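Case study.
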Amino acid sequence: MATALQDLAAPDGICYGCGSAHPHGLHIKSYWHEDGVHVVATHTPDPQFTGWPGLVYGGLIAMLVDCHSNWTAMAYHYRAEGREPGSLPRIDCVTGRLGVEYLKPTPMGVPLSLKAWVEGPVERKSRVLCEVRAGEVLTARGDSVFVRVDTARLAAAAHGR
Amino acid sequence: MATALQDLAAPDGICYGCGSAHPHGLHIKSYWHEDGVHVVATHTPDPQFTGWPGLVYGGLIAMLVDCHSNWTAMAYHYRAEGREPGSLPRIDCVTGRLGVEYLKPTPMGVPLSLKAWVEGPVERKSRVLCEVRAGEVLTARGDSVFVRVDTARLAAAAHGR
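After joint prediction, the assembly is written out as follows.
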């Protein structure tokens, strides 16, 4: 079994969606597909993340698309630099723009699979597309932009330091 | 103190983001502003919803924008029909497209305020803009589409019934 990108590159991560060290977050795990193009993840929604009865909460889908797409951007950045996730210096990206199109209602109780890739160049701002399937059914599609940053500097700026 | 739109129109709601009856969800509460244009909400993120250290998880902001914007769409629909939220038949909308632009990092530990409105006509598909502020600082902006639906029919279709 391969090791997830999150566990390789940020084992101390505390993000609610994808932090390996978050005590009770979603623990999204993303992996390179063997095709060398796509980054994939699977996730079975906890019943608490219901939206309408019997349907997955769109906000959960947004969280999955957000974190998984961001890890896709970071995976592409590592590869563009010819080095493995987990090598230093660490590569960090944040969400610049999150876009999720809800094509069909997503049923609760079915494992979801995510497949994402960078569309176009891998740059400071990279565009990531992400497909979400419930079983075989494409139910949502992400189209987002992730920005490579220095996160310590970002946090300092946000708190006026 | 006014009653929130969620408690007026869907006191039995189980949505993780905005369901009044969810045992431990976000319990987002949305209110008409007295200006008759904006729908507003405030929310102080629980520390579990951290993204990067010291910063609010973008996925939480996406959930806030999603539910609050949807309630903005529903509030406008009730008003367009000249009746109060809570009157029957109930009006339900779902997210067609969620768009969130992250303008600045959002610091943890500051109450967030949301201000949303329908931009353009109130139709089966309505566009809702939503501003998110941490204190006085605009940190994120939503631009999304919400679709008026029969949610029981949607759930049946999602489960192949």
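Observations recorded in class. The beta strands of chain B are 31-32, 39-43, 93-102, 112-119, 125-134, 137-148. The radius of gyration of chain B is 15 Å. We will return to this complex in the next lecture.
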